[in-house]
Every structure is written in structure tokens, then in C-alpha cells.
Amino acid sequence: MNSLFTCLAGPMSFVLLLFAEHAMAKEPVCGRVLCGGRGVPGVVVTDGERFTQTDSHGAYRLVCGENAMHVYISVPAGYTVPVAESVPMFWIRVDTLAVREGIDFTLLREPDKGRRHRFVAMGDPQVRNRRELSRLDSLLAALKRTVARLPASSEIPVLVAGDIVFNRPKMHLPSKKSFAALGRPVFYAIGNHDHGPIRDSETPANEEPATRRFREHYGPTYYSFNRGLVHYIVLDNIRFRGGKRDAYDIGFGEEQLAWVERDLSYVPKKRAVVVLVHAPLQSRQFPDPEHYGDSSALLALLDGYARVQIISGHTHCNSVATPSRRVTEHTVGAACGGFWEGPVCLDGTPLGYKLFEVRGRRFRWRYVAAAAPERLFSVYPPDTSRCGASRPASELLVNVWDWDPQWRVEYSEDGGRTFRPMKRCGYDDLRALDPVACEYFGTAGSPRIAARPWIKARVTDHLFRCTPRSERVTIRVVSRFGETRTQQVDL
Questions:
Q1: Sheet harboring 230-234: ordered strands across?
Q2: pLDDT by residue (tens digit) across 86-128?
Q3: Is 199 in contact with 240 (CB distance < 8 Å)?
Q4: What is the C-alpha to C-alpha distance for residues 298 and 286, in angstroms, rounded to an integer?
């Protein structure tokens, strides 16, 4: 009798378990990906954890994870998506849907398929209030004028590397409206100041409440899209804990890295990849790999692709790191510079953005100063005003904002007949401070902004120096792409 009961109880328990799981499971999300009313096959669909692809009729069916807030697509090459208040609508919220059928996505065909295209990268707008938003509007107006002067080509999106606002969730809506004035899609990454704020220092912040406001405005915190021969990935590398100091560290975590691995499984190795994050994965300034958390795991997943461009912000400085022949990381100067307290970033880079041109799998780029789009550097003649911590007043200084080792920075004292290389200051030179950054922000021991004393000029390694002996010096700067700028300096 007991043995017979045991035999019956086993299958019955299994049936009850299946019934319970079915009762708790959410209905799958079903729909189509359409362009001009026709289904588009092979489009990747995900909820941030699970993946599927559309069939030959553009239909998909995805059983979402329990915590899924969005279902979204990786926009295929040759297409774009509609835009709402600057935000590309490649995503649909499903956590509040009562009916999960007929969840369709709309694609718009891109006439030239994006084989040759451009995009703009911008760091840290970081607005706190309407006054700062007004200053951002001026910068965006300058960007709009720059883009209008470019030869007609495919759509030019803007990539914002996080810190859209400064701990002010209410500023997301007006910020989106300001970016919408560009008339272009804006792809946003999440920064540390876009998380929370969560003030419970006793309990570390769970990522869901920390990112919820961002996701309500901009969609998922990690996603991808395609243009031409380039696969773009936007990721969240801020592990936010909250508390009084808004504590966080840098890293992706296993769940997000697993998603990246699955996402890249649909991307041939012959493609190029652009990755947008908030905090740098590596830089010349901080060579210690432990500073970047599990960034090495992401770099391992990117290994073998034709070319990889990593775009970050966070530091309020501008820098280009080239750790290998195929990988370049652009830490783009903040749009807000020194937190809207001056006309430059903490390293003296003017407020601006970076313009990229893509031809197939090849990239060209240039940092554009909003107030002077054709300039590549700043010049400080001897005896110009300098804080006590900066280089000596006897030196002529040149700050080459987007310098990397493939640039040349030279000077001539014979009218340009012969040129000599200028000496570059390194990060170990604590006097390598831009004079304008010093003027506005001060230094660690002597801050200039009483209400925000933590803001200070930062050492840079793209400051060059010489001690001239003649009354006229010619500066010549040649970029890695052969762009040449000269400037005569009368002493």
C-alpha cells in the first residue's frame, strides 16, 4: 500500500508542479517587425535576457523573463526606426501590457543602407536645472549647424555617453525635448548620475529601482543596432549602490555580459563594432586594469572583430587610447565641461562633441569645439595667466585636445622653414594643467568654486611645451588623419 501510494504521489506531484509553473508563467510576447506593411525576416528580438529572430514573414514569439520591462529589437542594417522626443523607438514596454499579442515594431528603410555614414558622440550633458539646460541648448544649436554643413548622406545619429542629468530625474523630460530639436535619433547610455538617486545607505541599491526612471524615458539600459557594416552596442557599466554619496563601481556583471555574448553571436567577425558606455574601459590616465572592473571580459568578447571603437565619457576630460591595432577607446570630453562652471572641461578641452565618419569598416574622427569648429588645439604664450600649480610662465603651451601617439605637434622659430617636436607632458607631471581650466576651477589645494569645491583642474597628457627664444613662433599640429593646422604666435 505504501509503495503504491509512493508511485502515485510522484507523478501527481510532477503534474501539480507543471500546473503551478504554467499558472505563474507570463504569456509569450508575439508580433511582427514590419517595414511598409511587409514583414522583415531575420531581425533579432530580445527582452534583455532571452533572444529570438523573426521568421520569413517577420513574425516573432518570445517567452520573456519574469522581470522583463521591455521587448526590443536590434535594428538591422539598412533600416532606422521612428523617433519620439529624440528617443529611437526600437523598444516596447511589456511589463504593463494586459494583452501580449500583436506587439509590432516599425522599421523605416534607409536609402543608402548606411555603408558610408556619420555619427556624433557626446559626453555628460549632466543638466541640473533650466539654466544649465539653456547652455546645453546653445551647444546643441552649434552641433545642428555643424551637421547642416556636412555633405548630404544617411541619417546622423547622436550617441550620448551617460550622465544625461545630474541626480535630477525630473530633468529627463526637458532634456529629451532639447535633444529632440536636433531632429535626429539620440541613443543614450546610462551614467552614474542617471541611476537613482537612492538614499538608503543601509541597503545596497538593487539595479531595478536604480535604473527604472532611465528605462521609463529611454528604454533598456543595454541594447544594440546596426548601420552598414557596423554593429553598435550600448551598455551600462555602472554598478550603483546608492547611499548618501551615491556609491558605485565600474563593471558589467555576468547577466549583461551573457547578453552581449548572445547578441554578438548574430554578428559576423568581419563586422566592425562600436560600444557606447559611460565609464572608460581603459585609458592612458589610469593604466591599472583593476580600476575598470570586469571590462577585460567585455574586451575578450570583442576580440577578433574587424575594428572596435569604444566610446565613453565620465571623466570630464578628453582622451584617445589605442591599446591595440584594432581597438580604440574615445573618452569624450563632457558637453557640460566642468559641470557647467566654465567654458572648458577639467583638462582644458573646450565644450563640444566628437564627429565620426564611417566608410565600410573604417573610421575617421575629430573632436569639434562648439565655439570654434575648425580648431584642433589651444595655445598659451609665455607670461599668460597661470595658476601656481601650472607649468612655468616662461613656456609656450599647446593643448591638443584629441591627441594620440599618431599625431605630430611641432614648432618653428624660423618662419616655418624647419620644425622641431614639442615636448609632451605626461600624467606624472603634476604641473600639466591647462591654464584656462586652472582659472575657472582651481586646483586640489586651491578650489575656485566655493559652492562646489570638489571641482578642480585635472592633469592631462595632451599638453605640449617649449621655451621659445625668438619673438615669433609657428605651431604646427598634424592629426593621425593628416589634417594640418598652423598658428603663428607673437611673443
A1: 223-227, 230-234, 272-276, 308-312, 327-331, 319-321
A2: 999 999 999 988 889 999 999 999 877 778 999 999 999 999 9
A3: no
A4: 18
